[in-house]
Amino acid sequence: MQLDVLEQKLVNAARKHPPGDHVPYAFEKRIMARLAEVGIPDGWFLWSRALWRAAVPCLLLVIFSGLWSSNSMNAANTVDFSQQLENTVLAELNQNLENSW
Amino acid sequence: MEKTDQDYINAVLGGDAQSFEPLVVRYQPRIFATARRYARKESEVEDIVQEIWLKAFSKLGTFRGDAPFEHWLMRLAVRTCYDFLRGHQRNRESSFTELSEPETDWLDRFAADPEKAPEDEDAARMLINRLMDQLSPPARLVIQLLEIEEKSVKEIAALTGWSVPLVKVRAFRARAEMKKCLSRLARDKYV
């Protein structure tokens, strides 16, 4: 079978039979009713919805920041780990300095 | 004086949702014809058309007005149809063993003498529809736009949102897929 000729014939058949453009009765009414259910895309509505959606993450961020800063303040009252490390490393040097005096 | 598309669009964006109806009335025949190229059942066609209009309404704010509204709407329509094809690709038929009698008859006449199988018969249309149903979504979209609607690669790129090289690659693959389907048709029917 000549497949190239068959393909061309079938493609030509599709070109000669374009699909109909008839519209079901009162279809636009159905669309408008559906749009009324969905609602009008109002800018203020979209803005307030975005704000409400952002509220929960913002609240969580505030709580997390509060906890983190209070922990930092508690840690500031105790001896700093880096300071302890520095004292340990330089202990012998400090001792030598004291002995030299 | 008759209102333009832009007048209606401005009214809708200003809060008058009823001004969307004249746009629906004006363009819905074209939208129905487009949807019928990708879906066979009338209930599916209606669902696709409804989806297109809902998207058009909700995205109307993104219409910049530098091209005609019809072009913007057709881009939206083609992309929605493509989404439909991708969502329904599992429903594709897998063989040509269940051809109807007119289709078999048409193919027999073609095999005997290609000139004796006219293109304007319903059987030929049924066969091409069956063939298109077997293609993958990108192949079907490209064959539809490039071969059947005879659009240029640039036009397809604008309609689909794909780049020009991607359209060319997909057109190459689509033609190969079409050939494969045709050879399967010949094998299922005559071997």
Question: How far do the termini of chain B sit from each other?
Answer: 66 Å
Count the DSSP helices of chain B.
9
Rough outline of chain B: elongated
Helix content of chain A: over 70%
* CATH topology description of the largest domain in chain B: Arc Repressor Mutant, subunit A
Average pLDDT rating of chain B:
89
Specify the CATH architecture of the largest domain in chain B.
Orthogonal Bundle
Helix vs. strand class of chain B: mainly alpha
Measured distance between first and last alpha carbons of chain A: 109 Å
What is the oligomeric state here?
heterodimer
Largest sheet of chain A: none
- CATH class call of the largest domain in chain B: Mainly Alpha
The proportion of strand residues of chain B reads under 5%
Series of H and E elements of chain B: HHHHHHHHH
Q: Helices and strands of chain A, in N-to-C order?
A: HHHHH
Contiguous low-pLDDT stretches of chain B (5 residues minimum) are: none
Number of strands of chain A: 0
Helix fraction of chain B, binned, reads: over 70%
What is the number of strand segments of chain B? Answer: 0
